[in-house]
Amino acid sequence: MTQLLGRVSPEEEQQFYENTESAGLRASWMGRRLERKPQVEPFAWRWEQARPLILRSGDIVTPDRDVERRVLTLKNPGLDYGTTHTMVSALQLLLPGENAPAHRHTPTAIRWVLQGTGAYTTVEGDKCYMEPGDLVLTPSWTWHDHNNEGNEPMIWLDGLDVPLVNTLDATFFEQYPEDQQPIVGVGESARKYASGTLRPAWEDTNIPYSPLWHYKWEQTHAALRNLAQTDSSPFDDVAMEFSDPATGGPVLRTLACWIQMIRPNVNTRAHRHTSSAVYQVFKGQGHSVINGQRFDWDEGDFLVVPSWAWHEHANDTDDEAILFSIQDIPVMKSLSLYREEPYTENAGHQPITSVFEG
Ligand SMILES: [Fe+2]
Ligand SMILES: [Fe+2]
Predict the structure, then answer these.
(1) How many domains does the chain have?
(2) How far does residue 161's CA lie from ligand 2's centre (Å)?
(3) What ligand has the least distance to the C-alpha of 141?
(4) For residues 69, 70, 76 and 82, what is the CA-based torsion angle, rounded to 10 degrees?
């Protein structure tokens, strides 16, 4: 309740507020104080529901210059747009013989390949053939187009920082004059920079993103299995971040990409942090508990963990479960806004208060 000083009558006070409003001013003591007001909701999308719809979208539109991309976005129910307040994730379909025309934009994007072979993404002239489990980066303002030379439909998950870049009012988009950009190499980025700790000695990698933009599943899976034999985190189990070989840091300025194995019968401890995440269940089955709500997941499902939501993951089976995720950690850390807290009660496990039925 506002403390009145008694120097004005109620009518004079009312007049004051009307005058401030018509002058385009707002009395800060009448408004909202500094507080979190989360809108992003924990949510899950089922692969068995999404898969037939994305395949069906092939009969509805084609990715020409009007449509650009044939995508179905994972819309968070708490938002008008986006999967979290900073990121948007979407399913994209490319049919045999199709081309998603070349363009570039300031929002950064990643592709996580779910199904199919025979398609490639060209990134800055480098032709990258995509297979399930591959991660392909198309960093801010890099030319990219997708083409399917094979004979099966390709489906991948897109992840972009569009909501963040829109908030910062820095969204720019440009079409390439032709549908396909000229090819200057095939798998060049991977040949030069995917050798782990070795990289070309003469190359200046002073670019604002990872010079490696194609991370192959075979290498990713091998790395994960190696780490699983050695060490793990109590909160994320066997979690690895895809890294920029030039800096060792996140692959993109705004997005981090993770691959993590929840080993058989492991139940991680809960924690929360100011970064948000979009998960894809690449392999296996299990469940997560987010703010007390249990989300059972199966291979192919998608899951959102909002900022500052308690969360833990569990594999209830005897087979490995593998989760891919995009996270906005680099944004929060570069702005010194990242904070993290473990859940200390009940041996680190939240009481389950509801079960997600979506
Ligand atoms: Fe794009
Ligand atoms: Fe976490």
Answers:
(1) 1
(2) 19
(3) 1
(4) 10
